[in-house]
Each structure stands twice: as C-alpha cells, then as structure tokens.
Amino acid sequence: MLLVAGCAGVGGRSREPVRSEVDPQTTAAVVARVPEGCRAEVAAALTAGEDAAGSCAVMRDRAAQEALARRRLRVFGMVERTTVRLASVALVVSQAYLCRRWPLRNAGESALEIGPARAAGCTVRRYRGPLTISVREANAAVLPVMTARSDDDGYIEVMFADIDSLLRARGRGGLMTFTELQVGRDGWAVRVKLPELQAQLAEWHATWIEQGRGSPGLFAALHPQDGAASQMRVRALEATVQRQAADAAAVDRGELSARRFLERHVWSPYRSLVEQKDGRSSP
Length: 283
Hints:
By secondary structure, the chain is of the alpha+beta class. The chain has helices spanning about 25-30, 35-50, 55-70, 115-120, 160-170, 195-210, 215-220, 230-250, 260-265, 270-280, and strands spanning about 5, 50, 75-85, 90-95, 105, 125, 130-135, 140-150, 155-160, 180-185, 190-195.
C-alpha cells in the first residue's frame, strides 16, 4: 500500500538512496587517470551508470572503485521487483551499501538490480524509508508531488489516482498530461513513461470491453486520443439506445412510468412517444 508521509521534502529526504550514475565532477577526475584509449568508454559507462560491454572492463572497474572512494558513504537504490497494474505500480525496493566499488546497472536496465550490486561487493538489504514521487513535464522539468514510504519488506504501491488527484488539486492537470512518473529521488526506483502507460491502459480497457466487463463510454472519456475511441463512442451510443428501447418497452408494459423514463433519459429517439403517454409534448 502507499504510505503517505506528506509533501516532497518532508520525512527524511536526505536518507533516500541514489541512482547509479556518477556525477560529472567525479567522472572527470577518475577518467583522467584512465589510459587514453579507454577514456571515452569508461566516461560513458560512469555517466550513464551502466556496465555496458566493452574492451575496457578492467579500467572501468578501477574507475568505479576510485569513484566510490571519492564519494564514500553512498547508499544506492535497488529494485528487486516491479509490477505495473491498471491502477498502480508496485515495487519491492532494496538498498546497496558498504560497496567496494561504485555499482553500475546492467546495460539497458532502468534500475540497479541485485546481481550488479553483489558484483560490486555491496551489502544488500530491503529499504524501508521515504521515496520521493515526482512527475516530469514535456520541457523536462521535474515536479515533486509527494513523499511515500516503503514498508519493512521494501514494498510500496503507488496509486495513479492518488497522484492524479494531487496534481489536479494544485491546478496542474491530470497525471497523463505529464510525460513521466518517477518513484524515488531522480527516479532511482522506476521511471514510468506515461504515454506508453496510457497506451497500455487503453489496450487493457479495450480487452475488458470485448469480454463484456467494461464501458465503451468510459473508454472514450479516458482515452479520447486512442485510435479505438471513435469506435467506442459508436458502441456507447448503440448501448445507450438499446437501454432506451428496453425502457420504452417497459413503459408500454406499464412496468416503468413515463415520468421516470423522461427523468432517466434527457435525450432519446423514444422521448416524444413517451411524452405523449405522460401528457407532455416535446419542446
């Protein structure tokens, strides 16, 4: 569950782990001590925080060890499991500390995993503490939204509706008007690409509708830019007319009052017929 600690910046922000990218100043200092032929490769690895394949692995490991020596007492954020659901993203997070060298993520991974942390000689344990929840705007500006806490098992679940409500309350528009949701300071735990999430949510919603468990009208309201939205609007209209036809038949059978029909359906192709039964005339 999501445990809200308050606004971002409250609840021990300084205790939160960091990502595995090495800061530019440290990178420049340690790369200067690397043989010239490996400098570009090592600099790229440290800057990205990734242990990419290359011919300078030994030099990269030495540079990572020196980088940690220049920035001791670092605690690195790790992610053991990520589950993206329709309404939330759930994580099990850990921290790596007392490392022998700066841990670098596997190439292409967005978060540090247990394998690279162990390879860097780190001690690993579940992280219980604050995580900053932020969103990124189209212009790359990052807006902190709130601070949450993981539990004793390192578990945290971030509900999209909670973030959406907080943003709307501040007059910033809904969650899906932003480009990225970040969990953890600088997104060390997860970075959710919101346009991709929106597309995934629309796909799931459409599947549920095909299985008879969703609302076409709600789909069109939630995903107006999706390619299936116009088709869903047609299906929603057809479903509305079908309900109105059933209610009009119920009026004929005396099972539903004309007045109740008119209150229920502000617009309907059956309205004029029902108004005649109610003694009214269409405006």
